[in-house]
Structure prediction request, 946 residues.
Amino acid sequence: MASLVGSRVERKEDKRLLTGKGRYTADINISNQTYAVFVRSPHARAKIKKIDISKALKAMGVVEILTGAEIATDKIGGLIAGWAIRSEDGSEMKVPANPPLAKDSVNFVGEPIAVVFAESLDEAKAAADLVNVDYKVLKGVINTAEAMKGETIHDGIEKNLCYDWLLGDRKAVEEAFAKADKIIKVDLINNRCIPNAMEPRACVVDYNTASEEITLYTTSQNPHLSRLIMSAFGGVAPENKLRVVAPDVGGGFGSKINVYNEEIVCSWASKKIERPIKWVAERTESFLTDTHGRDHVTHAELAVTNEGKFLAFKNETIANLGAYARVFGTVTPTYLFGPCATGVYIIPAAYTNVKAVYTNTAPVDAYRGAGRPEATYTIERLVEKAAMELGIDRTEIRMKNFPTEFPFKQTLVHTVDSGDYVAGLQKAKQMSDYAGFDARRKKSEANGKLRGIGVSSYFEACGIAPSAVVMSLGCGVGLWESSEVRFNPTGQVSVFTGAHSHGQGHDTTFAQIAADELGVGLEAVDVVHGDTDKGTFGMGTYGSRSLAVGGIAIVNACRKIVAKGKRVAAKMLEVSEDEIDFKDGEFIVSKSNKKKTIGEVAFACYLPGSRDSDFKSPLPEGEEPGLIESSFFDPANFSFPAGSHIAEVEIDPETGEVKVEKYTAVDDFGRIVNPLVVEGQVHGGIAQGIGQALHENTVYDETGQLITASYMDYTMPRADNFPDFNLGFTCTHATSNPLGVKGCGEAGAIASPPTIMNAVIDALGGQEITMPATAEKVWKACKVLKKKNAKAA
Amino acid sequence: MTKVNLEVNGKKVSKDVPDHTILSIFLRDNLNLNGTHVGCDTSQCGACVVHVNGKSIKSCSTLAADINGSKVTTIEGLVSDGKMHPMQEAFKKMHGLQCGFCTPGMVMSAIDLLKNKKDPSDTEIREWLEGNICRCTGYQNIVAAVKEAASKM
Prediction:
């Protein structure tokens, strides 16, 4: 039987999604449902003096209006930060309360204050307009770099500082800097991005008055985690009375990790009004209130020798958390950022210091890559600049500092189990025709264009788990993953996973894994996810963890099935267990033609009826009937994908337009389960990273109004912004899991911003420019370059 | 209220709806055709594209009453005799979708492109699909799917 793992299997989920039969949260309607519309703050920072709902309550169709006062009375808890980070001085991070409906003060435009439930959406909207809120408007703190100098947003949190965190050894770094031939410096802004999953957030809640159970249909990447948080911290309902279903979810990219205000409020309110509730975000609500990503201001330095050896690295970053600390908000700019900031290099001394600040802007949390794109941007801008200033080829300087022996103890935290960074960069050079660049540049110049080339080499720590590690770093819960595999009596297999697919294709890739392990056909396997009433607990999908953690739980559960099957087959075939081999779905007695298929064994496990008077159970003594096994997998380490990307851009100096001419990506994801799916993940990641580098910018004005709050203003990358990406792979197996897999969901978004920016800056003759490199900025830079060149001539 | 008469996916429908009912809402809320998605409020994302009298339009910026008497085809109407349309098949074969949310609009736009141009170049495909936003795929496999479909249609 040919292995399914490694094959380009077309996706099982596609037919339903392609024929309009996908079922997203907004597609769900429940008889007698009411429609929710939230009253939101129009101010970035204000005290709430009074909320007058009297007029709105009398409006047509209104069922109920609830505010923060009722939330407080019912003791419904707020939104939480999932990771506790300590400052360099040992003090705990400072976290403000974040109630689901603001009661006394508001801290960003869009923060919900009250909610209207009405018989129709139009009536709910009309009534929401009649809710009269009296505010005392205060001066907001908006700018990341200036946040520590602004007025105190949250009582008791001085300088708006959540923590002042250090990873590394300042003294060792300063000593190394003192001995350096040269110090390379960069000042960087990692622009705030808005994740923009195409499906806006939504929730539909049904309260069953008989069982007192709440069912929440929601747009979540992690339904079990949502239930846990809503139950343990929100106090909405005990876990056994709260069912969370995340059906088809239209993209997440980190923005659907958090439990949001609307989900807590609608779940709580459904019980209160004893009616189903439907809420669907308008796109502008998504812009205002989905968690945003990135938003760092960084000063970093690299100490080097004249020969291009790296000696030490320092990184001083201010990270904007927005108004509140959310689930991954505090860990994203620390442990997901700092350790990766030294990149794929041997750097003997390093430190990263992060000051995380609160501002009157939307909360910032994980966004595809979460911390690792910011880390890679920092080191790869430095390395490219070092190559330029030292006059060493950009690929040569990287190779000079790559580790060549694995496991590689990286400077700050990680022990990277496997990799071959040299092979990756060599392959990228060859695939991109690196050697032919000068000729292409001359050709562009002849056409009046500027051409640049950029390289970025990265590694990332993903497969977000090992509980022992994440809990020691401050995570509030262990990050394993679970699976249950049910071999049904008639031969089909149901695979339950705690991971969640919102585009990743788990229905297919997880089925490939299970089918291979059990020796059954792909069509016999169904993957079930996204419903807390089905399957065991799970931590969900983010941090490229589905396969490297969740997939392995499936492997382990399947192996338990085979182990039991072997015991049963031995009894059925009247041989000892060690005489049996399992291959391609058959239990075979060694050196004989006696065998049982796994389907026959499964059927026997369920003790099918027999009128035989001397019925002998096929089960060995002490063996329970049934063929269902589960596994909770907690790996020993993160997984460490790595690679090198090379881009070429062409700039039209007359317009400032940057065109991505060539993009080559060579990645090492370990063993690949489905190349078709993996390539899709890489394409999407690269596109998001290019979006950040060239197009996307989140603009708040000085009063905290989000200027880029629709697709008319926020530049989403479109089909004509990209060339075809040229993908290649190298492969070193991860040693921390039995499949040797690493994770591929975020790599593209991690590697591509520095690759593109290095190319843009190269085209501009080394002139620094901040992301996004919009036509306006580039056009201005071209003018400067022209003047400089004229002077030189 | 207005009476709206349409032929949707080959079936005649007649509904009394508020005058301001837009076509996307008419399809979703009145006909339960949830394959047509709504991803924005500014006619930018294209998740709501359907065909009206054979041409692709954004159903979020069309009043249902304005197209009274028209023939409408939605993503649900592409399957015939249980078989997917070649464009749907091509999206599956080339992995032209991930989360599937933009997909119905993308497929409907792409079919209209091939009506206008049998064998479009990469650039023509990318420019035509400029009104459909996808956040998952980076568009590459969508372009490949349209080319694949063009070779089959």
